[in-house]
Write a structure and sequence with these properties.
This protein is mainly beta. The strands form two sheets. It has a three-stranded antiparallel sheet, with no helix packed on it. It has a two-stranded antiparallel sheet with strand order 2-3. Strand 4 and strand 5 form a beta hairpin.
Length: 67
């Protein structure tokens, strides 16, 4: 799912830290050590509905985005 964040991200909260993040080994290998945190928040986004080579903006989404 392709999307663009068009608003400010608000209500940010930590949902996982350090080894509780599944991808932490990959992140450390690629970007180095650090205080890795998985965050969630709310924002206004623009979704792109793509079919083959044409994309159309479909407007705003209210709710959760999933993979």
């Amino acid at each position: 799912m392709y999307f663009e964040i068009i608003g400010e991200v608000s209500e940010i909260e930590i949902i996982a830290r350090g080894r509780a993040i599944r991808e932490v080994a990959r992140l450390r290998k690629k970007y180095g050590p650090g205080r890795w945190r998985k965050l969630k928040g709310q924002a206004t986004v623009r979704l792109a509905a793509c079919r083959r080579e044409t994309c159309v903006d479909t407007g705003r989404l209210s709710g959760k985005l999933g993979a």
